[in-house]
Amino acid sequence: MPAGLRPLFIFIVAAFAAVFSNLPQHAYAHEVRPAIAELTFAENGGAVLKLDATLEALLAEIPPDVTDTDDAPQAELYDQLRALPPSELEARFREFLPKWLAKTPLNFGDSAAELNLTGIEIPEVGDIESARNSVLTFDVTVPAGVEQFTWAYPNEYGASVLRVARPGQELQAQFVPAGGSLGPLEVGTAAELPWYETAWTYLVSGFDHIVPKGLDHILFVLGLFFLAPRLKPLLWQVSAFTLAHTITLAMGLYGIINISPSIVEPIIALSIVYVAVENIVTKELHPWRPVIVFLFGLLHGLGFAGVLAEFGLPAGQVPLALISFNIGVEAGQLFVIAIAALLLFWAFNKPWYRKAIAIPASLFIGAMGAYWFVERTIL
Asked: What is the pTM of this model?
């Protein structure tokens, strides 16, 4: 290993140890997470809807395509709302509730469901740099004789996850992209979505987690690209990365391994720093590079697993959803590489490529990785 990389390697090893201490979780501090809806049907014909959502994002009307709330035009209002005590935030939301109910995502047949808000659980103000999720509880009137329902969370409120619980049956879960819908679904009995709908939904989710929402994963892949834009060495690295994150994605979802995001996310940031610095201090792809990429890929896979675990997987279609999500992730990574190659193919063989393009780009990538590491561990 080049002498220039040894201090960084030692730093990363030390950071692994430091991150395993009790650090606050900032992995998703500025990300708008999907709303988690759980619809429970009772034996007497009624139902209860619980919605786990970031009320501040709803009230501020953060657009669904925003990946970091600090970049949203409503960032100042959003931060002000996060600082409100529960009683004041509840009052603000009750004023907003009629607007939300006017776009009720739950429908029975051709009619919007009748929802009656029965409870709001809002955590106390803690670290205002971290998102605060609240839980809304609604009594749902299920019309007599209606056998099907649909779920269509409004596009402006972002993505959602619908979990459905029926008496005596296993909980079902399905991720719904912003503006998407589910249904018609059966009220009384569980009915799996057609396999192609599940496959497409999770493929889109995997792609979306890379482009546009996975800037850290995008920069890691670009870091691999800038050192070795030639096809064969690039494929070696991407293959190692793909194999690694496939392994830990599956292990994380099946509960074989479970590591907190407060550990995984800072190390993902360090992986970006390492790849960027290696691009700067060395001109060649050394044999250890795919091995290191594989190790970091294991951590990226745990990050993907955390996303899918939060969304939930459809009962009876777990392998299909898992494979589809992974294909979506790979499609997103290949899309990033293809765009970079199309933009820069003319410069690959130029004598100034490394100094004028690869090194400046790697400096930017490394700086972003260092910023994320600090943000996810200290800020």
From this structure: 0.61
